[in-house]
Specification:
Length: 638
């Protein structure tokens, strides 16, 4: 343990022992035992003839000979070591034996050493030690140590994988628990999210509140013969708060909460996904009543038979089959409610969507004006705002934003204010944040010629003029010719939140889309590539009017839209070639009418349109007040 002081207080830091060092130490010992020579550390190998010369000169003090190895070790007399320093790099060795030698099997040690000793004077004779080496230990080391080394390395490797990859293959238990569920469980005391933390989502919260009541008071319903729903499917665009809503359900019900992603079921090993599904529901049954939340269920619940692969016996399909069995099979899952989230409900398998599995389908849509206001109030709690800050103003200026987008706007606004060294976050910081998120970062340093700049100004002035003068077009908020992201200019609108769009509204929107291209025609007498995005949206809208919404007299009240996705990968069209030609003709007719009407509007108001372009060149950014000054109040549809 170690102690350190922090602001006058002592904090105890516990030093944990890491088993990895133990594995490394054992590996080093094994390697040392395997490769360590049995002789002295500095013993040099010499020939038998050199040993005889040293014996003859009376330099040898002792010879230790191993009979069954035919190997001898020579120890030189201390006063004679200087003569042999050349063998040791000019240094006198400190440890013995000093030399080793090998002989053949015909060598007779008793006779040879006895004869050599008899030829020496009494004071020069050497001591002879005869030994026999037992190789049992060496054999054990050779057979056991190397496999032991491999085992240690294997354990160390998988231990590292488990730590570095969140549990390694198969989850926290390593490769031996590859079939175990990787879902994370949050117990009752860990559930801090409630419906108070989920702003907006009025309709969705009302529906899931009933699920909470099921979990709190099951007898209230079962006493009447009712069955608790087994599954709730949250469907909606990304960032609308589906995961947060599922956590709030668990927090309000005060029950354990299992969370897992659909992709966690799919592995490269055959049968792993199905095994994980079984293990997940086994754990859930033990903790019942509880909630199992599967995020992005489309990763495993895609309609069977439509997966592009080499075999129909796909691992994903096996996992889906097991999930279907667990949710509504012979077994009982009393008290276990499955909550799933997806933004691709159209591709889910029909068997998964039927009653008895996902009994409830809750649509979590993009927030409306009042819901956006509530979401802003939640995310603005931790920000230092100006005293006269208006939350409703922000809600009006962020149509179509999801909850995640609003959180991003609040964070980006704080970053903008901090970048400019402000003490509080103001309205302009939020407007800059919205512009940056929608359009991208400003690129004032981008090189644009004077002619291109005028063309961009006329283009954006055309959009602004037509949208201001047409009653059904979206109200304009701001126009800029400052490049942002890939756009050279932009017009920002505040669309009214309609549930339905009439043919007249779509027509006026198309006029405002093509107005930039028409403005270039009037002023420059030619067109440029700057209207690419406008033409793309215009064409899609025109085809939607003809093929989806039945807004063409020649085509009639027909719709070729496939809301179920049942056609899958079928590349054939649901209409004949003759009808396809008629659709193309109708689309061209509609766009031609839109073009002619837009051109007439701009030519009738050419003076105001050119004045607006000049003001845009001067200021680079203009607002609705500037348009009202030139054209008067915007005409609104009664």
């Amino acid at each position: 343990m170690a102690e350190k002081k922090n602001n006058g207080k002592k904090q105890t830091k516990i030093v944990k022992f890491n088993l990895s060092w133990l594995y490394i130490l054992l590996t080093g010992i094994v390697i040392f035992l395997l490769f360590n020579p049995r002789s002295g550390a500095n013993a040099q190998k010499i020939e038998w003839d050199e040993v005889k010369n040293a014996i003859a000169e009376g330099d040898v003090q002792k010879i230790e000979f191993v009979r069954n190895d035919y190997q001898g070790s020579v120890t030189i007399r201390p006063d004679k070591l200087e003569k042999y320093s050349s063998f040791f790099g000019g240094k006198v060795p400190k440890s013995s034996p000093h030399f080793v030698f090998l002989v053949s099997t015909s060598f007779n040690p008793e006779e040879t050493f006895g004869e050599l000793n008899s030829q020496l004077p009494e004071e020069s004779r050497f001591k002879v030690v005869m030994t026999t080496n037992s190789h049992m230990l060496d054999n054990i080391m050779e057979w056991i140590m190397f496999p032991l080394l491999l085992i240690l390395m294997w354990v160390f490797m998988f231990r590292s994988m488990n730590k570095g990859m969140g549990g390694g293959p198969g989850g926290p238990g390593g490769i031996f628990s590859v079939g175990k569920s990787t879902g994370k469980m949050a117990d009752k005391k860990d559930q801090q999210v409630t419906f108070k933390d989920v702003a907006g989502l009025y309709g969705a919260k009302d529906e899931v509140m009933e699920v909470v009541d099921f979990l709190k008071n099951p007898k209230k319903y079962t006493s009447l013969g009712a069955k608790i729903p087994k599954g709730v499917l949250l469907v909606g665009p990304p960032g609308t708060g589906k995961t947060m809503l599922a956590k709030a359900v668990a927090g309000e019900a005060n029950v354990p909460f299992f969370s897992i992603s659909g992709s966690d079921f799919v592995e490269m090993f055959v049968g792993v996904g199905a095994s994980r599904v079984r293990d997940l529901f086994r754990q859930a049954k033990e903790k019942a009543p509880c909630i199992v939340f599967i995020d992005e269920i489309d990763a495993v619940g895609r309609a069977r038979g439509k997966n592009v692969g080499f075999s129909s016996n796909d691992e994903r399909e096996n996992t889906l089959n097991q999930l279907l069995t667990e949710m509504d099979g012979f077994g009982s899952n009393s008290g276990v409610i499955v909550v799933a989230a997806t933004n691709r409900a159209d591709i889910l398998d029909k068997a998964l969507m039927r009653a008895g599995r996902f009994d409830r389908q809750i649509h979590v849509d993009l927030p409306d004006l009042n819901e956006r206001k509530e979401i802003f109030e939640v995310h603005l709690k931790n920000l230092k705002l100006d005293n006269d800050f208006d939350t409703e103003f922000l809600a009006k200026h962020t149509p179509g934003f999801s909850g995640a987008d609003i959180a991003n706007v609040c964070n980006e606004a704080a970053l903008v204010a901090a970048r400019e060294s402000k003490e509080k976050v103001g309205r302009q910081d939020f407007l800059d944040a919205v512009d940056r998120i929608i359009g991208g970062l400003e690129k004032k340093s981008k090189i644009i010629t004077e002619h291109e700049k005028k063309s961009i100004a006329h283009h954006e002035a055309g959009h602004a003029t037509v949208s201001w003068l047409l009653p059904n077009a979206h109200p304009l908020f701001k126009v800029t010719i400052v490049p942002r992201g890939s756009a050279l200019g932009a017009a920002w609108y505040l669309p009214e939140e309609h549930v339905l769009m009439t043919q007249e509204q779509m027509h006026d929107e198309m006029c405002s889309l093509i107005a930039g291209r028409v403005a270039e025609e009037i002023v420059n007498g030619t067109v440029s590539s700057g209207a690419l995005n406008d033409l793309e949206r215009l064409t899609k809208m025109a085809y939607s009017m003809v093929t989806y919404y039945g807004m063409s007299e020649k085509i009639g009240n027909l719709s070729f839209y496939d809301s179920t996705g049942s056609r899958g990968y079928d590349l054939t069209k649901p209409y004949s070639e003759k009808t396809a030609e008629l659709i193309d003709q109708e689309v061209k007719r509609i766009i031609g009418e839109v073009h002619d009407q837009t051109k007439a509007i701009l030519e009738q108001n050419k003076d105001g349109f050119l004045a607006l372009a000049s003001k845009l060149l001067e200021k680079e950014v203009i607002f609705a007040d500037d348009l009202e000054e030139i054209f008067g109040p915007k005409v609104k549809n009664e």
